[in-house]
Amino acid sequence: MFPKVHAGMEMDDTNSGKSKGNAEKSLRILVDKMRRFPGLVWQTVWKVGREDPRRVFHALKVGLSLTLVSLLYLIQPLYVGIGQNAIWAVMTVVVVLEFTAGATLCKGLNRGLGTLIAGSLAFFIEYVATKSGQTSRAVFIGAAVFLIGSAATYMRFFPYIRKNYDYGIVIFLLTFNLITVSSYRVDNVLKIAHERFYTIAIGCGICLLMSLLVFPNWSGEMLHNSTVFKLEGLARAIEACVNEYFSDAEKEVSGDQSTEDPIYDGYKAVLDSKSMDETMALHASWEPRHSRHCYRFPWQRYVKLGNVLRHFGYTVVALHGCIRTEIQTPRSVRALFKDPSIRLAGEVSKGLRELASSIRNRRHCSPEILSDHLHEALQDLNTAIKSQPRLFLGSNSNQATNMLALAAAHATQKQGVSLSSVKTDSSALLDWKNKRTTEQSKEPERKFLRPQVSKIAITSLEFSEALPFAAFASLLVETVAKLDNVITEVEELGRIACFKEYQHGVEDIVVTCEKPPVNPAQNQLPSHGAD
Q1: Which one of 53, 69, 132, 295 counts the least CB within 10 Å of its CB?
Q2: Nearest to 403 by CA among 6, 411, 26
């Protein structure tokens, strides 16, 4: 007799075996991740420091500043003189010390002025309140807190104050309420306020010394260099875009087009720079002037130039989109316009590089920046397009091969749809409508559009083969018009900033970066609270 084994017991054994195997596999994966974790941490640390060595120096400056303010606690004579309020110096260093000198000046002066004004006003409120009785004093303090708190908060909505002194008003509200409300119950609150003000002043002083004297990072220089890099990036993007469009080999289009794409890398920094340009311009306005010839350096002109470059970048994005479209002009047709298009893109890129060089060296751009070669390339492209009118007007012959029909048939075959014949006239669309009406009467619940339907609808239209190229050429010509706007803005910047005059025959030494520059946003640490 064989022992009876129930089916349920066999399933339990199988499930337990699978669970055990999954647990062992998960454990092996966890052990492998833990083994690789130190190496990944070290790679990240090395990569961040190698991208911008200034980050390492900034971290060391913060550590040194914290060590200096900690001496107020560690050295006995200093601790006796200041007491436990030394912690306010540590908090000030943590909150105020930023990556650039302009950001540190902005925060440090805002914190110092906010604390000083709040303390002075609180002393005045306390002096008036002590002249009244205990009950009247409480009412007076409550009314003062309400009125000043409401007024200060409402002032934060003023655009100029919100842009320049918002952090100072937050510190003012915090300090004023701490001193005023505490003075009702604590007798020596004024002494505590004095000590806190001294420690905050010590912390701000250390931050300013570290930012201005020890390996300073200037927001103005970062904004200046960022503008140069954006011009060079757009120049590289236009050249790469046109070269790829007229390349003989067909390039595979991946799902993530931003990975290792020189065109995308060229214009990405331009499109993402609006908020960062405004922040750097604001911080640069707090920094000492970098020019002896200008009383007020025009940092806002860099912001306006950035806006013009963004509009230029939108055209480059559209050019990039022409490469990624599914409907393309045959390469044999593109070859007819290859030479003037590449020369035109090269002249536009040359003009952008000349503008970048002029800003880098703080000089006016060459008067020949819009050279005759640019106009010749533009005229040659116009002549080449006019010499091929049949390509752009299309052909009325039914036997002519329609590029859009071939593209649609090729796309539908990729999706597994076999079309025995692709019609290029309106009969294809009429046949589909009749068939669709029949299907809807049978299956009313189906209300989606199948992928091949849009392809048939496209093939029913009589387009010319060169129409996609016409869009590309129009955008390429648009870059010439946008280049004129960029030149005007750069010249205005040079005039206001007192750039030196261009000297013919004197060549500037231009140093270009092989790798893209570090985005300044990566060096901005998250904002701290108003402690």
Answers
A1: 295
A2: 411
Which among 329, 317, 328, 340 has a CA at the least distance from the CA of 263? 317
- Are residues 66 and 93 in contact, defined by beta-carbon separation less than 8 angstroms? yes
Q: What is the pLDDT of residues 49-77, one digit of tens each?
A: 888 889 999 999 999 999 999 888 888 88
Kindly report, residue by residue over 16-50, the tens digit of the pLDDT: 656 666 777 778 888 888 888 888 888 888 888 88
Average pLDDT over residues 180-198: 79
- Taking alpha carbons only, the member of 169, 235, 195 closest to residue 88 is 195
Residue 309 within any structural domain of the chain: yes
Angle between helices 219-245 and 299-324 (to 10 degrees): 20
Which residue did the predictor score with more confidence, 355 or 9?
355
Residues 115 and 194 in one domain: yes
Residue 528 has pLDDT above 60, yes or no: no
Neighbour-count burial of 368, counting CB atoms closer than 10 A to its CB (0-12 exposed, 13-18 middle, 19+ buried): exposed
pLDDT at 525: 59
Give the domain extent around 74: 41-213
Q: In this structure, are 360 and 286 located in the same domain?
A: yes
Q: What phi and psi values does residue 185 have, to the nearest 5 degrees?
A: -110, -25
At residue 450, the 3 state secondary structure works out as coil
Residue 500 is classified by DSSP as B
pLDDT at 411: 40
* Residue of 269, 212, 220, 226 lying closest to 98 (CA atoms): 212
- Which phi and psi (to 5°) does residue 415 adopt? -85, 5
The gap from C-alpha 341 to its chain's centroid, in whole angstroms, comes to: 30
Q: Which residue has the tokens 């470059």?
A: 309
* Sign (positive or negative) of CA dihedral 333, 336, 338, 341: negative
- CA atoms within 13 Å, Cβ hemisphere of 19: 6
